[in-house]
Design brief:
The chain is mostly beta strands. The protein has 1 helix and 4 strands; from the N terminus they run ββαββ. A hairpin with a 6-residue loop joins strand 1 and strand 2.
C-alpha cells in the first residue's frame, strides 16, 4: 500500500478531463463498486492498487462529487 501523494483540503486537477476539485476523503486503495470500475473504458481504466480521492469537483457547467485514482 502506498502513501497518498495528495491530502485532504488540496485542490487538484484531473490529468485528462477538464475538471478540478478539492479532496475531502482518501481511500488507500480502490473502494467503489465493481460496476463503477468496469464502466471505465479498459484502455484508460486505472489500477485498483493505488490511492483514490473523493473530490468536490467542478467543471465549466456544474459541481459534483468525483472519485479519482491517484494516477489521474
Amino acid at each position: 500500500m502506498r502513501t497518498a501523494k495528495f491530502q485532504i483540503g488540496q485542490i487538484v486537477r484531473h490529468r485528462f478531463f477538464p475538471f478540478r476539485g478539492v479532496i475531502f476523503d482518501v481511500d488507500p486503495t480502490f473502494s467503489n463498486t465493481e460496476e463503477w470500475w468496469q464502466a471505465i473504458p479498459e484502455a484508460i481504466r486505472p489500477s485498483k492498487d493505488q490511492p483514490y480521492y473523493h473530490l468536490l469537483a467542478e467543471n465549466a457547467e456544474t459541481a459534483y462529487v468525483a472519485y479519482v485514482s491517484e494516477q489521474n
